[in-house]
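Q: I'm writing a short methods note and want an example of a predicted protein-small molecule complex. Could you take the sequence and the SMILES for flavin-adenine dinucleotide and return the bound structure as tokens? Please keep the output block clean; save any remarks for afterwards.
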Amino acid sequence: MNSGSHSKKENRTVIIGGGPAGLTAAYELIRHGQKPVVLEKLDKVGGIARTENYKGYHFDMGGHRFYTKSEDVQAFWDEILGDDFLVRPRLSRIFYKNKYFNYPLKPLNALLGLGPFEGFLIGMSYLRWQLFPYKEEESFEQWVTNRFGKRLFETFFKSYTEKVWGIPCSDLKAEWAAQRIKDLSLKTAVLNMFFKPQNVIKTLIEEFHYPRKGPGMLWTTVKEKVEENGGMVCLESDVVSIQREGNVVKSVEMKQNGRYSTLLGDTFISSMPLPVFIKGLNPPAPLEIQKAASQLKHRDFLTVCLMVNEKELFPDNWIYIHDPSVQVGRIQNYKNWSPDMVPDQEMSSLGLEYFCNEGDELWSMTDDALVALAKKELAQIGLTSEDQIVDGCVYRVEKTYPIYDDGYAQSLDTIKSYVDSFENFQTIGRNGLHRYNNQDHAMLTGMYAVRNMLYGEENNLWLINAEEDYLEEVKVDQPVQKDDVVEAVKGSLGHVFPKLDPFALGIALGAVFAATIGIITLLSVIPNNNMVAEYLALINQFFPGYSVTIQGSLLGAAYGYLVGFVVGWMFAFLRNAATAVYIASTYRSAQSSALKQIFDYI
Ligand SMILES: Cc1cc2nc3c(=O)[nH]c(=O)nc-3n(C[C@H](O)[C@H](O)[C@H](O)COP(=O)(O)OP(=O)(O)OC[C@H]3O[C@@H](n4cnc5c(N)ncnc54)[C@H](O)[C@@H]3O)c2cc1C
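A: Understood, no commentary inside the block.
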């Protein structure tokens, strides 16, 4: 594209990246009568959520379940996809030691599958870690072990998580798990116990939305709509540098079919990976910013797609392969996502997902070698025989997972304030914010960036999918946080279990006891009431000096006050303690229940 002669009056917005975040921003701008230019380096839109097509077979890069709590995102999907937005049943299982286990994990099914002896060892290990947990919960390993015991962690969590991340679970921050567990807030979980069944969790487990021909169908339609309304979506346009004057971005330089050109703009929105953006700045960013950016890391991913001459292979949408004897991490059965993913209903198509790092041994293997590996592993697992596999292809996807390692949070903080200092630039999306955002969150960052731009709103895009207040505003669930316990007690839970004030209850009960004893004693002093007086006199055994006299009524009232205060104070204290223990255990079990679904979030 030639660029230079752009008139200022047009107010051109340049969007880097034609994935969910970038295209959502473009679509929002179109709705407001603007004509943005989207630059996408690949030959198709959709980013990680694109759909590849090989000989009429559609392949999702991963399997993208469409699920959101944001009404804006849901409305966007419904508007674009209409009747092509299917509701699909969900089944997924874990393959481990030649057996299939229910997923999300069900304790009885897991213990039966593993056998009584292993079950016993897992039970013992659970008890041991409940009694003597790790004091610090910094790593994923410590976090899960404290909830399920070491043995169950090693059986069901370790091998798959390490396949995905390529680093030991002891090096993976617990924060990752905490952020991923967001379909369940403590408050919701506890309130559900009293007021309603766990609809949200159940729904996501049993069914999900999916476009008839994969997620790419959504993004191709959005591209068409942007173009129909005067916007531009330029494919194979790789942004290689970003020209700035101080804290104002002036233009981007891009490579298209080996040729370089410059595009001027007034405002810029980028969903390219944050470290790549920083590296591309011209003049360069300050040294400490460059250093921080170089410390943000990603994990990559490749899918080996196989066409299989079998009508029905297995009932799952996908299977997690925890078994360490094979390298494949997950197997997608696309026909079960949507029958239209295959051109011939007599055939099936699978995606064998391998998690890797760009340039490592797996990534660098030839496509033929990868197809051969996938065929061999598929046969080894026993899902089909090699001679049934009639064709195969490979798709490599860069920077699929932003890594949360030890230094990432500090590096990100350093970069944030620098990026925010730009007057006419916003960074959005999963890699643009280096946040483990799902498609809906990535889209929300695009929507909010446009609101900031057009209405001068000050939405903090770094906080989407990160902070409670923000999430409530955009109507998505918040992650389980320690402070939720306190909040839950203070908030809605307070209505169910109001906190008792020991002093107030002590004083109130003391006053009641004092008045009761004092008044009854006074009444008993009246002549002809000897029966009551005789009984009352027995109190003297507990309250030395007490007698059924006018002076005794005062002393009795004082004793009554003291006893009433102690009883009231103790009752309130014990009741509060019991409530706290109950809430803490509910919090714990809410987390454990969410943890059983952790792989859904990878
Ligand atoms: C295996 C897997 C499964 C997933 N499953 C789900 C799921 O079930 N549900 C769900 O909601 N989400 C899921 N996600 C997450 C979802 O894919 C992402 O949240 C979403 O794609 C992020 O959108 P984005 O636009 O921020 O980034 P991306 O999808 O990464 O898009 C960024 C775009 O920018 C382009 N780009 C990068 N650099 C440049 C450059 N220099 N010049 C021009 N263009 C550039 C890229 O080519 C890309 O097209 C999954 C992700 C993975 C990896």
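A: Remarks, as requested: The chain has four domains: 8-64+214-294+405-465, 97-181, 298-402, 502-587. The first strand starts at residue 13 and ends at 16.
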